[in-house]
Amino acid sequence: xxxxxxxxxxxxxxxxxxxxxxAHHLMHVLRGAPNDIVDVFxxxxxxxxxxIATLRKREVELEVxxxxxxxxxxxxxxxxxxxPKGDRxxxxxxxxxxxxxxxxxxxxxxxxxxxxxxSKLDKLRQTVISACKQSGRNHLMEITKVHSWADFVKQxxxxxxxxxxxxxxxxxxxxxxxxxxxLRPPCVAIGPEGGFSDEEFRTAISAGAHPVHLGRQILxxxxxxxxxxxxxxx
Length: 234
Fold this sequence. Notes:
alpha/beta, CATH 2.40.240.20, Alpha/beta knot, 2 domains, seven-stranded parallel beta sheet, five-stranded mixed beta sheet
């Protein structure tokens, strides 16, 4: 399989230029040479098989051999999650990207212990690109700005079919969790390590979300998020 590179500016012209990090990786890590074949994607569904044409000091010019365009996945899943400590959110982002999750919404609730800064979210977007390269995905997963619980209830629940993970929820297989008449894109909300407060839970249910429980075991944020994503997408 050809090595994959991300280029946001990729379009259906005949020449592609890699710069900065991607050019450095191709030239100095992979030791790319003229006429080597590589794969380039723009994160919006367009990909191209390319041949290395010219190596310069800080950029690589590629000649396009062929284009292909991927359609978006049939299910656009949003994961709205509390942010776990340490590098566990990086792991969640990587695996969610590999599974085909459409969007991540970082949540800050009354029991949150981590409030990610903008710089952290920017770094996580690089994790998304790396996971797309590894998995062959050509659509970047979106990471939104941090949402308060109030913002999430007001902005997301009316627009999507939201399942809230909670011990008082219905079983995953129950018909109430998957109404055939609700065609809105799905969203799963996972609380922080201490879970959602009673008030947050009541607010979400009153706004139209549906509670679902994940079994007897207590799961970490990232475990619950990836388990539910796999159930929906695989």
